């Protein structure tokens, strides 16, 4: 998986022009009981714009759970999604929306094509990961479980990489792009603790952490081995 570049909870697939983010959860702040603004809209816009500027992709793929609420899509959610879509288009990247389990009302606020899964130019399939994907692929990029890892008392969002772990295909699980979405520490999780059926052997998954301070990508051994070092 040397063709993957990790940065700020997104991944760029080299040779395809594709930037992928997952679990944007637009409207997560509306669901909060906190009465003062949490800054979700500016944070998502600015960080997405930063990824688009850095990688200069030709397409930006949202890998499911684009919205947060199951029950409705408010006017504020519609405006926020439009803002993110416009951010992509202004950067020259075509927005591609893949539906997740939260996206029951996504079609109400998005008039473009909505995908159950989306195949990149190299054959990689992007899907949300909440159910078994129909298309076969050499690699799947998913979200859904919001992985994080606790290292030296600090919880960090992480990517999980599994080489050949799902039907012989590689799996890349992304952390939640929305920083208001809780990260789930994978340190002691068993395979059965994951909600995604694409996780078939947690001990074989390699955590990857992008360090915002140093801008370094930190790659760790598979969880089965790494747990003994934590």
Could you please describe the fold and organization of this structure?
The chain has 230 residues and is α/β, with parallel strands linked by helices. The protein has a single domain (4-229), classed as STAS domain (Transcription Regulator spoIIAA, 2-Layer Sandwich). Helix content is 17%, strand content 30%. The protein has 4 helices and 16 strands. The chain has helices at 40-55, 75-90, 106-109, 223-226; strands spanning 4-7, 10-13, 18-21, 59-63, 94-98, 114-115, 117-119, 125-127, 139-142, 147-151, 154-157, 159-166, 169-173, 184-185, 206-211, 216-219. Strands 7-8-9-13-12-15-16 form a 7-stranded mixed sheet, with no helix packed on it. It has a 6-stranded mixed sheet with strand order 1-2-3-4-5-6. The longest helix has 16 residues, at 40-55. The two termini are 25 Å apart. Mean pLDDT is 91; it is low at 32-38. This is Putative phosphoesterase. It comes from Halogranum gelatinilyticum.
Count of alpha/pi helices:
4
What is the count of β-strands? 16
Helix content: 10-25%
Shape: globular
Number of domains: 1
CATH architecture call: 2-Layer Sandwich
Overall pLDDT level = 91
- Distance, first to last CA: 25 Å
CATH-derived topology: Transcription Regulator spoIIAA
Radius of gyration: 17 Å
